[in-house]
Specification:
The complex is a heterodimer of chains A (about 130) and B (about 170). Chain A has five helices and five strands. Chain A has about 130 residues and is of the alpha/beta class. In chain A, α2 runs parallel beside α3. Chain B is α+β, with helices and mostly antiparallel strands. In chain B, about 30% of the residues lie in helices and about 25% in strands. Chain B has three helices and six strands. In chain B, strands 1, 2, 3, 4, 5 and 6 form a six-stranded antiparallel sheet that branches. In chain B, a hairpin with a 2-residue loop joins β5 and β6. Chain B is globular. The chains are: A alpha/beta (about 130), B alpha+beta (about 170). At the A-B interface, α1 and α4 of A face α1, α2, α3 and β3 of B.
Chain lengths: ~130, ~170
């Protein structure tokens, strides 16, 4: 059965790139897309997903507020999230981890880095 | 308050970030489609494409990325895995903005490791110049037959090693 993944990023180019890498990796996945946290929450009200891949810097609702909101939802707080961001500073990574991010991938990354992070999430270990 | 990064630190970070981003995420050469570069030439005006990212942190400033449209079409095709001739102007600009965003974040992650920074959404600039201000750092990177130019301006003066004691 295909994994159901939600890609949250305000850049359509980045969402296409992530989808392309996931498809090329051989992972059987159906991808949903949202351009910010608010859109993602609306989508999560209608669709079940196995994992969320989210950017941080986004208009309307950014990645930090999105993860904070997820953490308050009894069901959604159990959905693993992987942060994908250009910000590779230790304090940002620590903050997103504290908000519940299961993994953190800083851009730029190699395709195998994304695949590895997803495998660790689905394997039950931190990415 | 820690010393601001020196211009040479920005130069090094900019060069490393450009190399890293283009190699890892733009697969220049690795995923190139079979369409020769000339195929997109008639689709693009000769003008340059410029994207700006404003960043806020310690310090704040702007990054400007400039490349001719034909080369930008090529890297957008590589990034999206599409044929060059199928891309719209909007797709090319979106990819170029994402490239600017990644380079800016990668530079700041290298020079601002003790501070949190915030990036504004990248915007396409009608003019590639920034008259009246000299850049803090500049790097030129070959992309095919073209040159990708990245420049950073800081909002506050950045001290070089010799001037640091005076700042």
């Amino acid at each position: 059965m295909a994994y159901r993944l939600l890609i949250v990023d305000d850049s359509p180019a980045m969402r296409s790139f992530v989808k392309r890498v996931i498809q090329a990796s051989g992972l059987d996945a159906k991808c949903f897309e949202a351009s910010n946290g608010r859109e993602a929450l609306a989508l999560l009200g209608a669709e079940w997903v196995d994992a969320i891949l989210t950017d941080i810097n986004m208009p309307d609702m950014d990645g930090e507020e999105f993860l904070r909101t997820l953490a308050t939802d009894d069901v959604l707080k159990n959905t693993p999230s992987l942060v994908i961001s250009t910000d590779a500073t230790p304090q940002r990574i620590a903050r997103m981890r504290a908000l519940g991010a299961r993994g953190y991938l800083s851009k730029p990354f190699l395709p195998e880095d994304l695949r590895g992070a997803l495998e660790r999430i689905f394997g039950g270990t931190d990415a | 308050m820690p010393d601001p990064p020196s211009p040479s630190a920005f130069e090094d970070a900019l060069r490393d970030a450009l190399t890293d981003v283009l190699h890892k995420m733009f697969f220049i050469g690795a995923f190139a489609d079979a369409t020769p570069p000339e195929a997109g030439r008639e689709l693009d005006p000769p003008a340059e494409l410029a994207a700006r990212v404003h960043f806020h942190g310690e310090p704040s400033g702007d990054l400007l990325l400039v490349l001719n449209r034909q080369a930008a079409r090529g890297i957008a095709a590589d990034f999206l895995g599409e044929n060059r001739s199928c891309l719209t102007g909007r797709q090319i600009e979106e990819v170029f903005c994402e490239l600017a965003n990644m380079i800016c974040g990668a530079v700041l992650s290298r020079v601002e490791s003790a501070a949190t920074f915030y990036l504004a959404s990248p915007v396409i600039e009608p003019c590639a110049d920034n008259p009246g201000r000299s850049e803090t750092a500049k790097c030129v990177f070959p992309v095919g037959d073209a040159e990708l130019t990245a420049r950073i301006w800081m909002e506050e003066p950045v001290c070089g090693p010799l001037e640091k004691s005076a700042c």
